[in-house]
Amino acid sequence: MKKSRLHITIFISFVFLFSACEKDEICIEETTPRLIIRFFDKDDPDELKVVTNIRVEIDGIDDVFINESITVFTDSISIPIKVTEDLTKFKLILNGSDSDELNDNEDVFDLIYTREDVYVSRSCGFKTIFFDAITRLEAESDNWIFAIETIKNPQDILNQQSAHVKIFH
Amino acid sequence: MLKYFINIFILLFALSSFSQKKENDTIKYKDRYGLRVGIDIYNPIYSLFDDSRKGLELVGDYRITRRFYLASELGYTENTDLEDFFSYTTNGQYIKVGVDFNAYKNWVGMENIFQVGLRYGFSRFDQTLEEYTINADPFLPPKTVTESTKYDNLNAHWVSFVLGIKVEVLQNIFLGASFSGNQLISSKEPDNFDNLFIPGFNKVFLNNNGYSFNYTISYLIPIYRK
């Protein structure tokens, strides 16, 4: 009888052992990539150049987009791309994050691409990746952006391991 | 002195009854051999309370030696799972075949089982991705696709290690509970999705393992005694 009780205890503890790790709930894989932009000096195209007090907005969204790439490392920023449309209109505002509104200079560029939804995992679900992306700068009288180009042509945006777009200013 | 006398008396009495029992034991008891068939009651009861899962499992075992049984389970499952970013339904049939070893030493005339078993499992199933929401930055509007996608003709092979008990509660009627730890060997996976649930295997975890369990009522059809 004692032996059977031991068996049952082992059985029950087995059940609990396995139910304890029931869900792989935490999403650790990379999901939808953001656009990574690096800023270079227009006079010395190999040198990174910080954009002072940059503010980032996306057309159609009221809020200002903020993350640590914008507030801390301003020579390289990562910003989200619309997964609902094949075009995202970005507004990069020089001196936009300081209190002085008179020195703001807004430049607008489009990112045009095709999309594909890709399965990642149970916990992460699906991500969107972007193909054949091109950039188009809206020209105006006082562009602070001198030139914008994708690193490759065409540029696929599959992950965030390297930059996708260069901006010279 | 009287105390010792009583002790010796009790000892003698015990010895005499012990030897008497031994005489009884010389009558050889013959075990029953037969086919036990039953059903899993977990899924039918579960589906009364929750629509997300339907299924039925038939179980059977056949005693081949004093301690070994050939065992099999077959059934179907329709299961809908809701994950953080998507939901999907799995629908299919399965069969498991293998052997059970009875690790329980019964008293004479009892036929309870503490089973330790191995199974090979096979399932054919379809998966339907019901809907999904792209996992993207919440700063931008979300994209949810509600059009379902069906992936047909999928299959999977796996092995299981089974632990369980079967207790005879009435003449020939057994109540059982068993747990099985499953390891996937191979599976035919859909494009751009995954086999996250397999009928008979249950949820498939990251390293291709999982667990399942059942609660059964079964009936022993005695065939012969040995």
What structural keywords apply?
heterodimer, A: 169 residues, mainly beta, 6-stranded antiparallel β-sheet, 4-stranded mixed β-sheet, 2 helices, elongated, B: 226 residues, Porin, 8-stranded antiparallel β-barrel, two-stranded antiparallel ribbon, 11 strands
> How many domain units of chain B?
1
Biggest beta-sheet profile of chain A: 6 strands, antiparallel
What is the number of E strands of chain B?
A: 11
Strand order of the largest sheet of chain A: 3-2-5-6-7-9
By DSSP, the count of extended strands of chain A is 10
- Tertiary shape of chain A: elongated
Cα radius of gyration of chain A in angstroms: 24 Å
The average pLDDT value of chain B, as a whole number, equals 88
Oligomer: heterodimer
Mean pLDDT of chain A: 85
Question: Can you describe what's shown?
Answer:
The complex is a heterodimer of chains A (169) and B (226). Chain A has one domain (35-168). Helices cover 14% and strands 38% of the residues of chain A. Chain A contains 2 helices and 10 strands; from the N terminus they run H-E-E-E-H-E-E-E-E-E-E-E. Chain B has 226 residues and is mostly beta strands. Chain B has one domain (38-225): Porin (Beta Barrel), CATH 2.40.160.20. Chain B has an 8-stranded antiparallel beta barrel. A two-stranded antiparallel sheet of chain B has the order 9-10. Chain B starts with a helix and ends with a strand. The relative contact order of chain B is 0.18. The longest helix of chain B is centred in the N-terminal third of the chain and has 24 residues, at 2-25.
Summarize the structure.
The complex is a heterodimer of chains A (169) and B (226). Chain A is mainly beta and 169 residues long.
Please write out the topology:
The complex is a heterodimer of chains A (169) and B (226).
Chain A: H1 2-20, E1 35-40, E2 55-58, E3 64-65, H2 68-71, E4 76-79, E5 87-94, E6 105-121, E7 125-137, E8 147-150, E9 155-157, E10 165-168
Parallel strand pairs in A: 1-10
Antiparallel strand pairs in A: 1-4, 2-3, 2-5, 5-6, 6-7, 7-9, 8-10
Chain B: H1 2-25, E1 32-40, H2 42-49, E2 53-63, E3 68-82, E4 86-102, E5 113-133, E6 144-145, E7 149-170, E8 173-187, E9 197-198, E10 202-203, E11 209-225
Antiparallel strand pairs in B: 1-2, 1-11, 2-3, 3-4, 4-5, 5-6, 5-7, 7-8, 8-11, 9-10
